[in-house]
């Protein structure tokens, strides 16, 4: 039964008619802006005559507007009112479809309310097997423009919100179809800014790493927590897919074309010429006529009003299903929502390099076109039933409000056709082919044993293989290792061998013997997979594979040689330069020469992704180098050369992983106390063979600071440096500690970030959003959006947090971003928004306030205010200073606010 949160049919039975009713009966005459020059290129030739509005069609009517190659059909499987403004879809192991509903995207031409907390992730099932997803629930609701949805095991998804930094795991523990458990998965993952420019599409790759657009790193869950590695810049915005060989394909967004696809992104960036065939950037959409293009008339094809050059790309899929014609397998499909097309791309590989060809370019056509101006293809996916699904936001505006401002060409077109009225709709379509029925087998993988999952690795539909591998890895069940080893070595199904190999890698059960054996396999594709998987072992310290990698550089197959060069470069194998030169001398293929030359002479690569690291002074660099020496001399024996723990077999490691450790990256007191006094016993319920970490109080404060800083800024960690002064403070405060800490006692003594919960009440004397289109809520202080008073700061202004229960508080951190008044030399100095003076008070009831626990002045954007631990339910920051006259427009602002507190002692 449809739950209340999804029962749109009761309150809005006919959303199409609602949209039509909202439109004006009188056709608007679009006035040219008063300061516009009618002879300028921006306005010359523009039709501003009154027009009838673009009216939404019912799904059955929209279906008639599609143009497909002969034999193909398209049908709706889920539409409004059940869903609104879908942006992406994903399936769990039982074939249930999760829909990312971006319910606040462009509800007005000014993008009002974009960050209102009303978006959701819904889950849908086709229980009667008629091909329509009729049964659904709001799995997670009240979200702020969520960035992605990734099913992650049984009744669980990963997602995050816009302007936020944390990914959360949401789980339905009671089986009612709604997530009732929220857990932090990883942090330091997001950014602020326009919602079209933030990270998106968390995606599980065949190599068991999680990738996203924009971010120049990848993450994965390990027994010790979520770890992270740098990658190249993917220059993508909305869409990730992978092919049968596990290579990721990223979509570029504003470029209108795929952005990264030559080689796996973790090898970095390589510049390849002529990646797109001649004419690739020319789309061939149907005649839409309204010419609603942000770039203006230069992008209009006359006389039909369609787009003459790609201007957007969204969603993609390397089709890997088994219920569409064979010649579609391995082809790339993606949406161009401005051109109203879905494009089919044939990747042609010659001499190790890939060139993309539009399959229908010679016919001046596309795989899927629509003459309905509201068709907005934003995602596509190979489905469990072997067909392809297309996500259609079915929306009036497909360009964020910053590019549709008043006075712009696009704004004129939006108003002329009343496109801003077409909101809150959305359809998901299935593409089928005559004579090929969809697979009606209902997946049941979430209820199968690991041994039963293994057989799905041989399935002809890539979706089944991917999902079975993911669930095997998440199970951490070692009992299937013999089955997987047998399949990897001897299956007649090459693709099953790929997945078995990576399942072993994900389970921590991959052996050097299997890698070495598969490096010599007759299939060059399997030799490549073996090299990629073997990188995990080499990075963990197994140098026995060194000569095997070096031997592969002499392989007769060009693709294998290129892979061997990239692996050798990534692993920094000894003699790398001479090996690359040998490869280039032996193989004159363009790909070998291109990649070899760029390994020897790395190009300067720039992108809009975010990597790790920070600018360090010479003194800090010297401290880090000292820390590296200490780590390699003392720590690697137990923690492993890469910090993931020295392998002990059966998935066990000798000591807790330091790589990507939330504990290591938390408050610096944690690492300092462990280094000074040691740690023993179970950590979060898990014991290790190396059961004790011996303290080193005899070392100097500088020595402790060096190794602590190295660990916190390396091994995929991104945290702050530790100073000798901090070590001295902790040393003094813990002088009475006898012997090593027990984990629970240690954790209770170290300040922890308090993750904002729904029960927190955040208020302020004055409040405005720090971002255009924001929510104007004081809660925004805790994310990247930010909070501001909205007016000049003055004495008496306050900001308050009420917690659900009394908590021991210790400090707060926040950033007060300056307001820039120009970027050129000679521009006025920025306006500083930090409070000129402050005091912090606490209370148990919100009425009786104690004397200030901290007070002082701020003089820089980044602020850390620590105070003696105090138990309270309320914390209030009051502005006690005044603004200098020349800064009379300076508001008080905060973002990335964090409260720190101590864990309450466990009770029996």
From TrEMBL:
InterPro entries: 6-blade_b-propeller_TolB-like, ARM-like, ARM-type_fold, Cyt_c-like_dom, Cyt_c-like_dom_sf, DUF7133, FA58C, Galactose-bd-like_sf. GO terms for molecular function: electron transfer activity; heme binding; metal ion binding. The keyword Transmembrane does not apply. The keyword Iron applies. Signal peptide: none annotated. Keywords: Heme, Iron, Metal-binding. Residues 748-902 form the F5/8 type C domain. Residues 622-715 form the Cytochrome c domain. This is Sorbosone dehydrogenase. The lineage of its organism: Bacteria, Pseudomonadati, Bacteroidota, Saprospiria, Saprospirales.
């Amino acid at each position: 039964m449809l739950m209340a949160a999804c029962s749109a049919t009761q309150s809005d039975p006919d959303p199409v008619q609602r949209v039509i009713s909202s439109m004006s009966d009188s056709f608007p005459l679009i006035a040219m802006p008063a300061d516009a020059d009618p002879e300028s290129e921006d306005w010359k030739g523009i039709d501003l005559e009154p027009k009838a509005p673009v009216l939404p069609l019912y799904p059955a009517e929209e279906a008639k507007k599609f143009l497909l190659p002969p034999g193909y059909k398209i049908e709706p499987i889920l539409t409004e009112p059940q869903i609104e403004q879908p942006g992406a879809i994903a399936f769990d192991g039982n074939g249930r479809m999760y829909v990312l509903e971006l319910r606040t995207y462009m509800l007005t031409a000014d993008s009002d309310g974009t960050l209102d907390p009303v978006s959701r992730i819904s889950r849908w099932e086709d229980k009667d097997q008629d091909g329509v997803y009729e049964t659904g629930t709001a799995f997670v609701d009240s979200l702020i423009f969520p960035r992605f949805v990734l099913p992650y095991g049984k009744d669980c998804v990963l997602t995050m919100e816009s302007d936020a930094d944390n990914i959360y795991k949401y789980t339905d523990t009671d089986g009612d179809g709604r997530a009732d458990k929220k857990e932090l998965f990883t942090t330091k993952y997001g950014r602020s800014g326009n919602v079209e420019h933030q990270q998106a599409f968390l995606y599980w790759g065949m190599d068991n790493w999680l990738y996203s657009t924009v971010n120049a790193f990848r993450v994965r869950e390990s027994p010790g927590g979520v770890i992270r590695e740098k990658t190249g810049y993917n220059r993508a915005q909305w869409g990730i897919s992978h092919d049968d060989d596990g290579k990721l394909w990223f979509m570029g967004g504003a470029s209108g074309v795929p952005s990264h696809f030559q080689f796996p992104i973790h090898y970095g960036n390589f510049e390849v010429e002529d990646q797109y065939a001649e004419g690739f950037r020319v789309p061939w959409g149907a005649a839409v006529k309204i010419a609603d293009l942000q770039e203006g008339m230069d992008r209009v094809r006359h006389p039909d009003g369609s787009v003459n050059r790609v201007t957007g790309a969204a969603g993609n899929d390397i089709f890997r299903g088994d219920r569409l014609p064979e010649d579609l397998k391995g082809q790339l499909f993606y949406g161009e929502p401005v051109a109203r097309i879905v494009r089919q791309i044939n990747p042609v590989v010659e001499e190790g390099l890939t060139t993309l060809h539009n399959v229908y370019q010679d016919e001046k056509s596309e795989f899927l076109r629509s003459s309905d101006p509201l068709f907005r293809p934003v995602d596509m996916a190979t489905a469990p039933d072997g067909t392809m699904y297309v996500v259609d936001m079915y929306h009036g505006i497909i360009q964020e409000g910053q590019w549709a401002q008043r006075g712009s060409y696009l704004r004129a077109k939006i108003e002329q056709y009343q496109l801003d009225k077409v909101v809150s709709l959305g359809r998901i379509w299935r593409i089928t082919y005559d004579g090929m029925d969809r697979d009606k087998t209902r997946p049941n993988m979430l209820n199968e044993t690991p041994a039963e999952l293994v057989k799905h690795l041989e399935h002809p539909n890539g979706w089944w293989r991917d999902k079975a591998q993911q669930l095997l890895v998440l199970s951490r069940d070692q009992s299937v290792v013999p089955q997987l080893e047998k399949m990897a070595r001897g299956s007649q199904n090459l693709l099953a061998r790929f997945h078995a190999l990576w399942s072993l890698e994900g389970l921590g059960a991959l052996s050097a013997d299997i890698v070495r054996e598969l490096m010599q396999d007759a299939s060059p594709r399997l030799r490549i997979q073996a090299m990629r998987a073997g990188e995990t072992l080499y990075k963990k310290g197994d140098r026995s594979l060194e000569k095997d990698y070096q031997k592969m550089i002499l392989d007769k197959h060009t693709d294998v040689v290129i892979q061997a060069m990239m692996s050798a470069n990534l692993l920094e194998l000894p003699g790398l330069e001479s090996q690359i030169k040998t490869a280039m001398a032996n193989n004159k293929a363009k790909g070998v020469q291109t990649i070899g030359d760029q390994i020897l002479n790395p190009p300067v690569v720039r992108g809009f992704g975010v990597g790790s690291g920070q600018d360090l002074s010479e003194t800090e660099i010297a401290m880090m180098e000292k820390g590296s020496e200490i780590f390699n001399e003392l720590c690697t024996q137990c923690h492993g050369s890469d910090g993931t723990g020295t392998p002990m077999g059966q998935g066990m490691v000798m000591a807790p992983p330091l790589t990507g450790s939330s504990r290591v990256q938390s408050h610096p007191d944690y690492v300092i106390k462990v280094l000074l006094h040691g740690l023993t016993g179970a950590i979060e319920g898990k014991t290790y063979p190396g059961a004790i970490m011996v303290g080193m109080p005899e070392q100097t404060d500088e020595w402790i600071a060096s190794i602590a800083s190295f660990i916190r800024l390396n091994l995929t960690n991104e945290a702050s440096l530790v100073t000798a002064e901090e070590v001295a403070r902790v040393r003094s405060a813990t002088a009475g500690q006898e012997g090593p800490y027990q984990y629970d006692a240690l954790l209770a003594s170290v300040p922890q970030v308090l993750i904002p919960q729904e029960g927190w009440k955040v208020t302020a004397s004055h409040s405005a959003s720090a971002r255009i289109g924001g929510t104007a809520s004081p809660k925004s202080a805790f994310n990247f959006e930010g909070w501001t008073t909205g007016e000049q700061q003055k004495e008496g202004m306050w900001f308050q947090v009420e917690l659900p229960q009394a908590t021991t508080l210790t400090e707060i951190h926040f950033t007060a971003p300056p307001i820039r008044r120009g970027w050129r030399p000679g521009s006025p100095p920025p306006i500083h928004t930090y409070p000129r003076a402050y005091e912090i008070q606490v209370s148990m009831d919100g009425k009786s306030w104690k004397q200030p626990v901290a007070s002082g002045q701020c003089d820089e954007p980044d602020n850390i205010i620590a105070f003696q631990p105090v138990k309270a339910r309320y914390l209030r920051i009051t502005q006690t200073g005044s603004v200098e006259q020349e800064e009379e427009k300076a508001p008080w602002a905060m973002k990335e606010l964090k409260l720190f507190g101590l864990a309450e002692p466990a009770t029996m």
